[in-house]
Amino acid sequence: MLASLLQKIETHISEENAFVIYRKPNENKVVAVMQNNAELYHVKDYTETGFVFAPFDADSPVVLLKPNEVEKVDYNLPASNKANLKQTLNIDDEGKEFHINLVKKGIATIHKGDFKKVVLSRKIEEVDYDSKPVALFNTLLATYSSAFCYLWYHPKIGMWLGATPEILLKTENKQLTTMSLAGTQTYTGEESPTWGAKELEEQQMVTQYIVDALEDNVTALKISEAESFRAGNLWHLRTSVKGMLKTNHIKEVLNVLHPTPAVCGLPKNTAKNFIIENENYNRAYYTGFLGELNYKEQKDRSATRRNQENKAYKVIKNKTALFVNLRCMQLKENKAYIYVGGGITAASVPEKEWEETVAKSITMRKILVNSNK
Chain-wide mean pLDDT for the chain? Predict the structure, then answer.
């Protein structure tokens, strides 16, 4: 049961042992990956097996949680989960002037021709939350069923909580799936939003970058039409990209994908340098990625009665599922630090970009408010 698993997670926290507990989008299983120690391990070449947690800066080490113990429990969405979304929030304008000026600087740099797009973000400090981390995670599960929801902890790094709608990549043996996710509108009850030129241009930029980046490592690429995708109180534009890996390793693919234009910009290195020099804070693991690396799944070759002899043959699938770390916060003592951002193009309007970060912050703000009720 989930309650007993959450109790085990509380024990891991008190004993300062590393763990992650999570649920994949639209699934009914909660998974906990637990280390039996506080050792800090890092990924070397992505042939390892475990749960990875990567920072925004691709030059920094990627943390690997070793699965000393893995536990899965069923999770049924509470019937009252929709009520959580109706909580009224008080949003202040702290940091507004700085962020608007940052966006203006980004737009001016785009007009100079230094880059086509840059993703600019900010960190919001929320004080006086008093719920246990497992209670926050439980509220997250009940509120955002279509997101990858997680609570991650390592005593040498800290604690992070999030509900991200964006896949970085999924693989099953050599089959690869990724997505481009760009453009944001607030959900107001409508069936599907109308997208403007700015959002459509931004989505096309991200999609084209991903296709070009995968060209040397992936064959038989298939690109879907862009579609509206709802994640909590927000709409996004989403395009699916699928193909076949040329090798059995994903290191090269991750090198070209991360950080994606959806969280960094185009060209990537120029935009990244602008972000580091101007955002005035360290993103750490915000807009990094996290998830399962090289998990093995064993299945019978055939389950039909006519082919009983084939049951002796097992099919081993090697699976990886990594998600971009969006809509997240860092928990530290009695404070929660919320991270939000948005893509800036030549067509961006600074005031609207500020409003977009406010809308995105609601994903995490609601968790703090509802868990403290």
Answer: 89
Supply φ then ψ for residue 274, to 5 degrees.
Answer: -65, -40
- DSSP per residue over 81-96, as a string? GGGGGG-------TTH
**Buried-state track 254-284, b at ≥16 Cβ within 10 A, e below 16:** bebbbbbbbbbbbebebbbebbeeebeeebb
Closest CA to 160 of 66, 56, 258: 56
Residue 115, both tokens: 């880059």
Preceding peptide of 25 cis, ω within 30°: no
pLDDT band at 249 (very low <50, low <70, confident <90, very high): confident
- Any idea which residue has 């990537």 for tokens? 268
End-to-end CA gap in the chain: 24
Supply the angle between the helices 350-371 and 96-112 in degrees, to the nearest 10. 140
pTM summary value: 0.89
d(CA 336, CA 360): 15
Cβ burial of 157 (10 Å; 0-12, 13-18, 19+) is middle
161, 329 Cβ separation under 8 angstroms: yes
Closest CA to 131 of 337, 339, 331, 361: 331
Task: Read off the pLDDT of each residue in 69-79 and give the average, rounded to a whole number.
Answer: 88
Does the pLDDT value for residue 175 go beyond 50?
A: yes
In the chain, alpha helices (H): 2-14, 96-112, 133-143, 197-214, 251-257, 268-278, 350-371
Tokens 């009720």 map to which residue? 373
Residue of 262 and 330 predicted with greater confidence: 330
Q: How many other C-beta atoms can be found within 10 angstroms of the C-beta atom of residue 205?
A: 20
Q: Which two tokens stand for residue 215?
A: 């060209």
Extract the tokens encoding 35. Answer: 């280390």
- Cα 339 from Cα 361, distance rounded (Å): 7
